[in-house]
Sialic acid synthase (Culex pipiens), 109 residues
Amino acid sequence: MLATQRGEHQHQNRRISFVLLRTLWCFGFGRALVMKISGRDVGDGYPVFVVAEIGQNHQGSLEVAKRMIVKAKELGADCVKFQKSCLTAKFTRNALLKPYSGANSWGST
């Protein structure tokens, strides 16, 4: 086996080991996994904990975000998840400068 192939093989083995360890950790090595979220037990043997993802769908509006939280609660969600992105890290300069006026645009760009 060439040195480059050996290095690639070792890297692949580490990746497989990581996936296996992560899987074992997720399943708790055969133990029931339970954690507390806001004082509530969540995990094996407990009711499902529903997370409604709002992400960035509030389009920067605090009022829209508040309405979405209320609606998520009405529909049975236990909590909501928001998301923040750094657009300069996600997109190239050209992509950021390109006009976007689609139906879901947050405003003129």
The helical segments are 3-26, 62-74, 87-90, 93-97. Residues 50 and 78 are 5 Å apart (CA to CA). Strands lie at 34-37, 40-43, 51-55, 79-82. The two ends are 54 Å apart (CA to CA).
